[in-house]
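Its record is quoted verbatim for completeness.
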Amino acid sequence: MKATKLIARTRPRLYPIWDAVVSQVLGTERAHLNPVREALRADDGALHRRLLSIRKEAGLPEEISALRVFDVIAWMDGKNRRLVERSDLQR
């Protein structure tokens, strides 16, 4: 998971963040990249456009990709539902 976070940091428009919380929210424990990509492309990019709208409503700069908005929303949803990182279970 650390490696995917590093890749996502260097490629914020191409690679989604994948961690235990996000994978639980999305139900993508084994395959994460393609389901996210497919969701962003489905319905002629409806989700992608919605994420850009949310970014604008939140007053975020254009440097923040739709993919990062997606990551943050998924992570916040997981935290609100009290989903935890696997490393948190060991504490």
Summary: The mean pLDDT is 85. The first helix runs from residue 2 to 10.
